[in-house]
Amino acid sequence: MSEQPLPDPAAVEPASAVAAAAATPAPALERPVLLSARGLTKSYKLGGARLEVLRGVDLDVREGEILAVLGKSGCGKSTLLHVLGWLDKADAGEIRYEGQDRNGLPASERARQRNRVMGFVFQFYHLMPELTALENVLVPAMIRYDGGGWRAHRHAVTERARALLAMVGLGPRMGHRPAELSGGERQRVAIARALVNQPRFLLCDEPTGNLDGRTAEDVRALLWGLNRTHGQTMVIVTHDARLAGEAHRVVHIADGRIVAGASADAFVPTLPTSREVPAAQGPPAP
Amino acid sequence: MYRSFLALRYIKSRPVNLISIGGVMLGVAVLIVVTAVMDGFQERVRAVVRGNLSHLAIVPKSLDLPEVSVLAARIKADEPRVVGIAPMVALPVGYVYDDGRRGALRVMDKSVHVMTAIGLDWDLEKRIESELERRHGPGALDGGLQVLAKSDSADPFGSPRAKSVERAPVMVSRSFLEYFHGKLSKEGLESFLEKDLQITTLVESKDASGQGSIAPENKNFVISAIYDGGDQAEDRARVIFRRLDLVEIGHLRSTWHELRVWLDDYEEAQAVKLAMLARYPYLHVETWEDQRADFLRAVKTEKVLLVIVLSFIVLLGGFIILATLTLIVVEKTRDIGVLAALGASRGGILSIFLRNGFMIGVIGAVLGLGLGALLTENLDNIKEFFEGYDIDLFPPDIYLFTEIPTVWSWPTVAVIMGGSVLVAFLAGLLPALRASRLDPVAALRHE
Known about the structure:
The complex is a heterodimer of chains A (286) and B (447). Chain A is α/β, with parallel strands linked by helices and 286 residues long.
């Protein structure tokens, strides 16, 4: 598996600087497709009823883009993110990455690849309360080198984790436990954790959904800065039209289908021209 | 690597795990102490039994006994494992006294304490003991009779043997004297030396028509020595004579009832017994274990039962682990989902909680080892502490010994610790399986 060259976290500006520079769009108009999902379906059994969450989703993720998936809560956007990130398995369809379908792989292999290729950021941070910020950031790396090599990589990985924490502005607080950190700080730790294995994709589920306006904007600026400086590819699912509006591209999901901004669309940066989602592209009324 | 790391953190961050660790620790400590005491007890009991008996006892099947010296010489020639052979006679006797006691036989208005009079060749037995000590070092017959006080410095029966058996010397035990006179100091014991002891013997006689009968006969003897045989109950009912004195006192037809045989290695008693039984069909041969088989088996059974009962403490510790780990898995459901999202496999998550149980087991077992060793080491202090509150943990009249005997056996300790760790590991299996089977997506949504 090819690896993205390590973005040197030390070279990234501190969060405030990133925030200031966030509004610059990515220059490319046409970029290669990294991840290509076709015909994804997913249903859950809920009680006796069958709940169809995804009903045939086609979606491409292009290199270096910030793709926003916009939809109301319960529309299946989280499920889509989990399926795209190989955390959940689609009932049908395929997700091609580097020419190979990853949806059909056995669970242990999907876990191994998820660890290396995907970085998850959740609305509620999901840090481990008994670990310090630094240890939280190190967990994916520990999992990665669990089969061996931890000793060899330990030093480099720990240095990288420190640098990532410094980059997100938590250098002095890396020995603190999540309970001692504010919501915004926790989300920064979570972002550092998602980046520690140098993933190709950063998958964010309502990354600012639990933060107040100012902190939310800081976190958004941090993410956008990562994309700008390192070309970090991101998929962000949100119901926040304003956040989605900042993305390079927005797809709308409703009723388990992509209803606008189809995957075949060219890579068209929507920033900074439109912060508002056009009414025509909005999800149909239920 | 993350698995041990997280398992350790989960243990550290949850005080409830201390209960699990404490449970395992307590179980291991109690099992270690109890097996050490029971092993020590068993070993001492066996030594005492062995010391009071001989390694083998040979009893002829008929009363037409060959000459002792001839038979002994033949056995020694046939069986090189035999170190020494000494003849013995035994005779039921009674010690008659005035005040009644519970369990005493009443005859007319007197009480009778029934005893066995044993006739030994003291010098010969001492020579055999010296030979064994020469071969195996001092204490080769550990657990045998200890002479506590005697009138004559060389021979507890005094020397030389008098022509008459009137006032013949006898050896009684400390527990016999204490049974009638209460606890005695060394001086108290010595004050009984040279005192008379009236014993009622049963004497065979034949009347003019040749009809045999048995009649009681009161005789006075002199206490020449006081011994301790280690077995309080046995000692109390045993008075020791010179063999030839007893033959004369009881008008015995045979000069020996039993041959006491000592072997170079008492572990070979069973093998030598079988060889002798094949060689001499006219003899009964019993090992020292055969002679007290019921008692020895009872001691062994007691140990096994105690270990089984106390193992339930460890099992209980296992259930505590099961309960707390189940709790932790429920509490950690979301973290399990996060771990899955970060790339942990099902096997990895399973392993976190298996290690959790295993580590609790190991920590508990190691702490239990420490506590168990500490308790075992200080058992006599603990006993004394309780005696200060009038609680006698180890009454010597029940347990034969005055101090609590212990044997530290590393193999036993290893089995106890290994077993406890295994129980802890198995207790973690169910919660670990549960954790590994969680749907990561559902787990992430868990509040």
